[in-house]
Design brief:
Blueprint lengths: L1 H14 L3 E9 L4 E8 L6 H15 L10 E5 L20 E7 L4 E12 L2 E6 L2 E6 L3 E6 L4
Parallel strand pairs: 2-3
Antiparallel strand pairs: 1-2, 4-5, 4-8, 5-6, 6-7
Helix pairs in contact: 1-2
């Protein structure tokens, strides 16, 4: 069942121009719970989650598991989750980040402000200096929450 759910979840994400961030399956095979976390370049709304849920239910009913009594949660991953795709960064230009990146010699962890994105290159301000990092050199990036 896990593979079927994963295939359906990814297919719908692709169809709706979304990123499948995470898929968690809990419970038993007779009463599973599917938690699907999606995102896109502009952010995920309740309407996007509802559309995704409807399409998931339609696709799941076409499988051999159609009679399974399952629960479904579709949500954005939340601001405290690491970003995984470069397109997720656009909506966060101007925000502070906690990042870990490979500088060619070692992995550094810093806090810096994202100011620009150009193809696969991210520009941050760190200690009043411009810091340019290729996306592939990022190890982890999380938006820094400010209260």
């Amino acid at each position: 069942m896990k593979n079927t759910v994963k295939i359906i979840a990814q297919k719908i994400a692709d169809n709706q121009n979304l990123f499948l961030m995470n898929l968690i399956i809990r419970g038993s095979s007779k009463k599973p719970s599917f938690e699907i976390y999606i995102d896109n370049k502009n952010g995920v709304t309740a309407d996007i989650c509802a559309d995704y849920s409807r399409e998931f239910k339609d696709e799941f009913e076409k499988t051999e598991f159609a009679e399974v009594d399952y629960s479904l949660i579709v949500s954005s991953p939340g601001i405290d989750e690491p970003l995984q795709f470069i397109d997720q960064f656009y909506k966060h230009i101007g925000r502070d980040f906690k990042i870990s990146f490979d500088d060619g010699e070692k992995v550094q962890s810093i806090e810096a402000k994202l100011t620009n994105i150009d193809n696969d290159v991210l520009t941050f301000i760190y200690k009043k200096e411009e810091l340019i990092i290729k996306f592939n050199n990022l190890k982890k990036a999380k938006v820094k929450l400010s209260f």
